Amino acid sequence: VPRAEPEDAELVARFLCDRSPAAFHALYARHAGGLFRFALRLAGGDAPLAEELAQEAWVRGIEGLPRFAFRSSLRTWLLGCVLNCWREHRRRSARTGPLPLPEPAAPARLPWLALDLERAIAALAPGQREVLLLHDVEGYSHTEVARMLEIDAGTSRSQLLRARRAVRQGLGAGEDEDHGRRRTRA
Amino acid sequence: MGEDEPEPEPLSNEEREALRALPREAAPPSALERRVVRELTRRGLLRSPASTWRGAVLAAGLLLSFAAGHISAGRSADISPASAAGKSWLLLLRGAPPEDNAPIEARIASMREWAREVRHAGVGIDGARLASGAEWVGAANAPAESDLSGYFLLRGVDRERALAIARSCPLLDWGGRIELRRVASAPGPS
User: Fold this and answer.
1) DSSP A99
2) Which ipTM was obtained for this model?
3) Is the separation of the CB atoms in B45 and A18 below 8 Å?
4) Chain A residues 73-102 within an 8 A CB cutoff of chain B
5) Contact A75, A31 (CB under 8 A)
6) How much is the pTM?
7) What is the pLDDT of residue A68?
8) How far is A165 from chain B, CA to nearest CA, in Å?
9) Sheet strands (E) in chain B
10) Closest to B127 measured CA to CA, from B178, B168, B96, B91
């Protein structure tokens, strides 16, 4: 379990003391980028949905802040809020199967491999995407992933295995297409 | 964070590096913070910006939000003089946000984002800041200071829409207020 950063604890304490917009802004400025990126990836690149998730996650996070005891990092707590909002959204919507391909926020600054990787992750089934993002991108252990997703660790492992295979397959297909295009041009 | 036990198909070093190299952050739209603050305030989870407003600090924050001297979200070429006549509204921005509610950069971004959103909704909008230090002409009992700090001009909208647009202005989140006035006659030479 990651240790709480003293800066976050200080920011939280300051916020809970006066609940001023300035104190909130300090928390927001520190974590908004990470939250939004996570929401964007969970949503498969659907920016409006990611905004919706991030907004609701911030509201819930702030609402629950008095109960937050820093047993995990603030980032983990907030990512958990995003995750809950996302899973509720999934339950609410009848949406199944792969979501639209992502439009990374700054594609020009991403190397081609990263772009392909983002697309391959976005194309995963939602459950696999959640596990791969938490384990391979965010760096949580299976025990932690299992706790966050309310599944057992074995399910987390098997989902990750399938997710990695699908990503590898997706990247391989992308490479094949690239080779094909190069051959066509030649 | 860490691994519990060996993975059946572990990542190669190249894959691990590629995943690690993915950006960890993405800048959310500037309007998102404004929406979150509004919702938190509405639910009573955040102190209202208005409650911390210091009336004596006139114009400072808002005037800075017009730092470029003139905010314009672009003219709407679709609005003909005929359709605009009688449908122009002036939003007089009054009062000013306190200096310590949020960094001024956030306010600048919020105000510009708001004006952009209005324009994207198909409304002609222009705005300008007013410098501090009102000078009164022909007013014997003029107040010592004006709290008018800027304005927006909306073209081609009815009253309901103008009101809705005014209500969505971030100035209200900061404790300011807006005076809405219909433009009775089209400006410029006839």
Assistant:
1) P
2) 0.79
3) no
4) none
5) yes
6) 0.57
7) 85
8) 9
9) 88-94, 124-129, 148-155, 177-183
10) B91
